[in-house]
Structures are given as structure tokens and as C-alpha cells.
What does this fold into?
Amino acid sequence: MANLETPAAPAAPGRGRRRSLLVKTGAWAAVYLVVLALTETGVINAYLQATLVTICVNIILAVSLNLVTGFTGQFSLGHAGFMAVGAYATGLITMSIPTVWGFVLGLVVGCVLAALIGFLIGLPTLRLRGDYLAIATLGMAEIIRVLLLNFNFTNGAAGLSGIPQFVNWSWLFVLTAGTVVLITNFLHSRQGRDCISVREDEIAAESIGVDSTRAKTLAFTVGAFFGALAGGVYASYFYFIKPDLFGFMQSINILVIVVLGGLGSISGSIIAAVLLAMVSTLLQPFPEVRMILYSLVLVVLMIFRPQGLMGSKELSISLFSRLLPKRATSAAATKDAS
Amino acid sequence: MEQVLQQLINGLSLGSIYALIALGYTMVYGIIQLINFAHGDVYMVGAYVGYVCMTHLHIGFFPSLVVAMAACAVLGMVIERVAYKPLRHSTRIAVLITAIGVSLLLEYTMMYFAGAAVRSYPELPAYLTRSFHFGGVVVTSLQISIVAVSVILMVALQFIVRRTKLGKAMRAVSQDQDAARLMGISVDNTISFTFALGSALAGAAGVLVGVYYNSINPLMGILPGLKAFVAAVFGGIGLIPGALLGGYVIGAIETLVSWVGFSTFRDAVVFAVLIIVLIVKPSGILGKNVREKV
It folds into this structure.
């Protein structure tokens, strides 16, 4: 009996994975086409489109920070610093080469530069633990901000304005979905599993041969790379950037999305980014009470649900099929029959 | 030489203020291992309470200082009871996010009621505006009072922590909460008391900054709060002498960097110093290295 079942076991997850891939691709494509259609027909006006860009930028930021904080367990309070690097690189390069290729070059330069900074900062500071690392990364982001304020070519506190706009929905979609897919795949790779094992127990991970410094630095570098990508998208769509946009508060905002969504849940980060943007849009008419409500929600949510909306679970088909018990049992029945 | 001395004296008053804020950070961190991000905003509230006392109630500088300290002590205890106590057993990141939430709540509630505009403290009485010349160095009586008030408060704190029963309880709880509870110490009350002490010091710092720089606004607590935390880490977090040392060193670094002509870079220099300290000696200048247990 047991012998009969063994060969079937590997086939079932394979089939499940293929079906899951199909559903995921379908969902991505549906999101892309629906928003494209709505934009073309003018249902999504300029205001909604700005919200959409904010959502996508926040998704990229939150997913990349989740890789560092949620999956690798390294507490970073300086993600806005990497965003600033990407934004300024993209802004400066597209302003001197105002073509799509300039935009792409800017994104690439920004991301590589941020990854390099992330690597250089990460190598020594990732030996620090918990709060110390948080403070070191916070210090790094503040240093980047002060440097941007003082350099001549970044135009100081006034910032850069008139950055050519190249980001449209297609770009936005490709970059956001690309980030999510790449980071998810990274997490399923050997390196990604190393990162997760470091989060679970660093000493145990090292004792079975995981190079924890390497895993942490890698996660930090990849996170920095995508953080800069978000900055580039932001700069290119909103055509105006200044150092104050990438201060301590921005780092906090990103962290809040990650924690609200659930540390260690990619889909949680996406849901939280969308929810927060919607709440923020709804509260736009009441600017005085907006931040008060925001902070109250934050405190109350942390007291009653400290693990975030999704915990460390992912939104997946198996989660849905559990909600539909009838289909699940019938699927099991067909498996038994075959 | 005289100029360096002058800058060091200016740095001393700034450093006293950082040290007062850093003490609150370090005590709270020492007892519940929380970076209390709302601490900088308690300091802001202290500055506003002092402002109300001096402009609307027309009471003097020292009584205002006491009122602000009392108000902040109560505020600190309330924050701890409402926001941090329910989370004592959850993950550190959840508590940290709550602290950030409380910080935003204080900032924007203050902005809602007091407005975002910068306010200035009333004119000071004559005994605080006098200045003394020692050779080429000018010292104002305000600077002397700031340093004096800070030193008195720090000595009082040291007395409370070292010589009283509550201080003993604080030290016990910071070493081992469970063991302290077994010895009959009320852990909750001790933590509340720690918050009250730290917040009172922050309130005092707020009033001192108000009279020294003469301008306050609802977001004034963010950067000094961060820098005071840097000071606490610099000296060795959890250690009271460390917070003092860190506060004065950060104050001196900041004034010297401004004096050399890089005033716009001073925040970057402070954080760069922090990163170097963290890399070279993560436990801070006075901290002891704790061996990692497997």
C-alpha cells in the first residue's frame, strides 16, 4: 500500500505547482489588462493613476524590505536611503539623456549603485544584531540624505524638478510584477532558504554550514537594489524629488507596510501597500486628522494583531481551496480513484 | 584656543540637553529593551507645557520646569500602560512599531491643537540673560543654569538609582524580570516608575531647549530624539554614565563641526561617528562585551 503511494506523491505537488503557476500568471495578466482597459477608457483619471503609482512604488519597497527584515530577520530602518539613491540616479541621468534609454540607464545605474552601497554598508554592520543594526542603517540613510542636501549636482534642499516622465502603466506593471516574481523566486532558491534559516536560528544555521554573513549581505544587497528601483520609478513618474522625501519618516512608512502586512509574507506586503494607499486616499479630505488616525490605527493594530494582517502566510490557491471544502474533498476523491 | 574653548562651552549646554534625553532612552532600554521612539516627542510635549506655563500662566522659569517634568512623568506612565504594557510578550518589532505609532500620535495631536507654526518662548528674566566674560570666553547665565539644572537632575537620578529602594528595584528588574518578581518586586510598577523618571528628564530638556533656542514646534522632537539615542548607544546603552558621556561627546562634536564651517554636515558626522562606534565596539564606549550563549 505504502509502496503504491510513494511514486504518486512527487507528481501531485508538481501538478499543483503547474496549476498554481497558471493561476498566478492568469491573475497577473488579468490585473494588467483590467487596469490598462480602465486607463484607456479614462475611468482611472490622473489622480487615481498617481495613487496607482504610489501603490506600486510601495509594493516594490515593501517586498524588498520584507526580504531583509521579514525573511532574513535583519532589522533595517534605512530603506529610504536606497530609495533616494535610485531616485537621484534616475532623475539626474534622465535629465541629461531624456530618452527611454536614458531612463533605463538611470534605473540600472541607480540600482547597481544602491546595491553597491548596500553591500559596503552591509558587510561590516550586519555583524550587529537587532536594534544596533536598525540604528546603524538609520544612520546610513540619514548620511545619504545629508549628503544629497549638500552636494551641488543634486541641487541641495530644493531638489530636482522637471525629470522627464517615462513611467506609464506598462512600465509600472513590468517593474512591480518583476520585483515580486524575482524576490519570490529568490526566496525559493538555495540562497533564499539560507536567508530564512538565518532568521529562524542563526547559530543552528551556521552549524549546518550556512554562511550567515553571506546570506545576510546578499539579502541586504538585493533589498537595496530593488529599493533603488522603487526610487527610480517614483522620480520618473512624479518628476520632482528632494532629499526630505527620503528621510526617516519614509523609512518608517515602508517598515509599517511590511509589519502591517506580516513579516515574511510577500502577499501580505502587497495587500498592506494597497490598503494603506486606499486609506490614505480616503482620508485625503481630512488632512488634520489623517495622521492622528493613521497613528491610532497603527497602535491599535499592533496591540491586537502584532503579527500583521497575514502573519507569515501567503495568499495561495491552497488557502482558497481550504475555504471551499467541497472542491477539496472531490479533488481528493478523484485522486483516490486514479 | 579661546574660540575652541568657547565652542566647547556651547557644546556643554547642548550636550547637557542631549544627555538628559539620552538618560530616558537608556533607562527604558535597560529595563525593557525597547527603543522608545516616542521619547523625543515626550521632550516636545515638555517644551510645550513649559511654554504654556510661562506665557499663559505667567509663572517663572523654575516652577515651569517642575510643572513640565511632572506633566511628562504622567504622560510617560500613561504611554507605557496603554501602548507598551499589552505588548510586553510580543515580538520586538511589534513594540517598536507601536512606539513609532505613539510618536506620530503625539506629534500630530500636538499639531492639531497647537498648530504647526513655530512658537517662541517669552522673554527671559534678567538673571538668565546676563553674560560673563572670562578672558575671551563669553558664558551666559542661561548656559550656566542649563548645565547646573542638568547636573542637579543627573545627580538626583544617580541618587535614586543607587540609594533608594525603587532604584534597587529598577536595577533588579533590568537584570532579570522573573527573578525580580520572585523577590517580591512589582515589575509593572517599577517599569512605570522608570518611564516616569525618564520622561520627567525629557520634559526638563524640552523646557531648557525652549529657553535656549527660543523656538518650539510639534516636530522638534524627531532629530534630537534620534541624536540622543545615538548618544545613548555611543556611551553604551543601558548604562547611565554612558548616556552622560555620549550626550556630552555628541554635543561637543556637533558644535565643533559647526564651528569648523560644516554646519550643514553635522548630522551626517554624528551618524558617521555612530556607525564607526557600532562597528568597532557595538556595546558602546563604556559597555562590556557580552559573550554570545549557544
Observations:
- Chain A touches chain B at residues 69, 75, 124-125, 127-128, 130-132, 134-136, 138-140, 142-143, 146-147, 149-150, 203, 248, 252, 255-256, 259, 263, 288-289, 291-292, 294-296, 298-299, 302-303, 306-307 (CB under 8 Å).
- The mean pLDDT of chain A is 84.
- Strands of chain A lie at 160-161, 240-241.
- Residues 1 and 41 of chain A are 59 Å apart (CA to CA).
